[in-house]
Amino acid sequence: MTVNGREAGGTPVPGTYFTVSRTWRDGDVVRVTMPFRLRVEKAPDDPSLQTLFHGPVNLVARNSATTYLEFGLYRNAALSGDLLPSLAPVSGKPLHFTLDGTEFAPFHEGTEDPTHAYVRRAEPGIVFGNSDSGVANPARTDGTTLLDEVWAQAPFRGKPALVARVRTVVDAWVAGGLLGAADGAKVVRTARGATYVP
User: Is 198 domain-assigned?
Assistant: First the structure.
């Protein structure tokens, strides 16, 4: 947070008030910068149908298709669990992004463009950062995938924490007969060898 271009002293703490004690004058300018993350909210009846949010801003896909659009996001997920590295900002258009050639824009803009508030998540393979394991991403009967279980525990303090989570999830899926042991070993090796955004 800045006041008239200078940082306000102190450190803001989530869930609390941040006090700036000073003599205020007409024309003082306060700027608050909030780090937004990209996150998804799943439809209650189908976890593969999801809507994207950048912080509190609902993003919709601008596309005239009459069927659900399919997108993958985990391949570029940051250790923080932020999915934003999967999207590319549109220059000169705040809060506009592209994903696989489709523009996502704030729902509240209310343009006449055809939009999709929900898209279908398609994560067919287990990919971490820049590394593809070559293993299909298995799903439980409720639609929850192995990658969903891994990333549900984000943020991770570092790569070792993510790799430990991958190992725990893989072990459970192998024990449950949902993933073969050889494929499980490939998944853990891939997670260990991948590069991640912090």
Answer: no
